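FORM 12-B: Structure-to-Sequence Request
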């Protein structure tokens, strides 16, 4: 058992409007919700201070499950501390949380009520420790738990770097004991950088795998390569039915390094993506969509058949890794930007254009680098848009500045601004 902490006194962080968020660091271009291949355009409407909304009540969504909430307030509290380079985060059926440790090549179970942290053991844990390769951005990365009632219910899936590339493994967790692991999918390009790694089950019950281009030219645009893609597979590793190309696991292509995937209550799929030197992206993911890398970074690729992002950031402002979606917005965990970004939903009906999203806002900062974000599965999201998230910091990953207690798992309670 590791050192742990109970939740500390909550720290209330006020609402930050998009205009404040854009200038909070003084670094790089301002974020924009419209997307642009160059500096964000200035319109007559944006050149003047925005009008205060006439009402603060959220706009109800009807049957879609979305609400339009202009601004939110958050309350942040520690759940657990002392984690070493945590990366993946998933909820277990008993209400505890499963966290992967990239460089330690291990898994831990966190009790969110007590903050207790327990190491996962067993033959599967031994295999992860002995056969996972670390270095740079590689190691033990994403983790997902099979949804109840579906194939692979309760089983654990991990994305890790092996000697011959990245792969997805599957095992059974009994308490804190992990069974021997089976390879579900291999042949994913690996490198010291751009390793992808996020795993998540979609509303359809299939496993989605986010991969990086592994710094290999041509990988992202090559439909025969698993690099620079979002993949959609069964729990046995087979291409899921109704994929864009029968017999292929590829769901979307043209990605540089996706490390965040999520679905909102309408079933709309979102992905966060690291840019090279200019623009980070939030995308609505369409089956068969080509997101342009390396031909396009940011927006401006529609004429060539590429899908434009719905929001972009300067790379110093975001470097987005984990992603979660609530009824009222998308939340991105920023590494380089050291912030939790909110992109509010502007339409209760969803939509795949930039008009369906509001201007990005900073809702949490001062925690350092942020790696993962997860909607608290134990909290029912309110009709007013209230909810809660778990967020992992990542200051011990070799690029941050660790402080006392790092790395930590925190809980972020969200409510509409009063």
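FORM 12-B RESPONSE
SEQUENCE OUT:
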């Amino acid at each position: 058992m590791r050192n742990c902490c109970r939740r500390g006194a909550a720290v209330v962080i006020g609402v930050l409007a998009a205009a404040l968020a854009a200038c909070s660091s003084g670094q790089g271009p301002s974020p924009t919700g419209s997307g642009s291949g160059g500096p964000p355009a200035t319109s007559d409407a944006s050149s003047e201070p925005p009008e205060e909304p006439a009402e603060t009540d959220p706009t109800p969504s009807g049957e879609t499950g979305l609400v339009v909430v202009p601004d939110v307030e958050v309350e942040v509290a520690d759940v657990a501390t002392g984690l070493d380079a945590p990366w993946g985060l998933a909820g277990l059926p008993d209400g505890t949380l499963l966290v992967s440790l990239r460089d330690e090549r291990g898994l831990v179970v966190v009790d969110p009520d007590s903050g207790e942290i327990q190491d996962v053991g067993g033959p599967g844990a031994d295999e992860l420790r002995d056969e996972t390769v670390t270095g740079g951005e590689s190691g033990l990365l994403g983790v997902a738990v099979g949804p109840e009632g579906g194939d692979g219910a309760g089983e654990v899936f991990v994305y890790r770097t092996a000697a011959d590339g990245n792969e997805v493994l599957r095992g059974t967790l009994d308490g804190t004991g992990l069974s021997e692991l089976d390879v579900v999918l291999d042949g994913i390009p690996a490198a010291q950088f751009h390793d992808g790694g996020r795993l998540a089950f979609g509303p359809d019950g299939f496993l989605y795998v986010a991969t990086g281009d592994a710094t290999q030219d041509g990988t992202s645009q090559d439909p025969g390569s698993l690099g620079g893609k979002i993949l959609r597979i069964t729990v046995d590793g087979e291409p899921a039915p109704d994929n864009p190309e029968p017999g292929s696991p590829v769901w979307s292509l043209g990605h540089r390094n996706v490390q965040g995937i999520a679905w909102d209550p309408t079933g709309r799929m979102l992905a966060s993506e690291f840019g090279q030197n200019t623009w980070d992206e939030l995308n609505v993911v369409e089956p068969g969509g080509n997101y342009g890398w390396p031909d396009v970074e940011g927006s401006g690729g529609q004429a060539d058949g590429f899908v434009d992002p719905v929001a972009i950031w300067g790379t110093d402002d975001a470097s987005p890794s984990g992603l979660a979606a609530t009824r009222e917005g998308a939340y991105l965990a920023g590494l380089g930007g050291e912030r939790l970004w909110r992109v509010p939903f502007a339409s209760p009906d969803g939509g795949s254009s930039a008009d369906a999203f509001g201007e990005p806002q900073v809702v949490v900062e001062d925690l350092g680098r942020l790696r993962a974000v997860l909607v608290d599965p134990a909290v029912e999201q309110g009709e007013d848009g209230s909810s809660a998230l778990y967020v992992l910091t990542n200051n011990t990953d070799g690029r941050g500045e660790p402080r006392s207690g790092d790395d930590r798992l925190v809980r972020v309670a969200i409510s509409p601004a009063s």
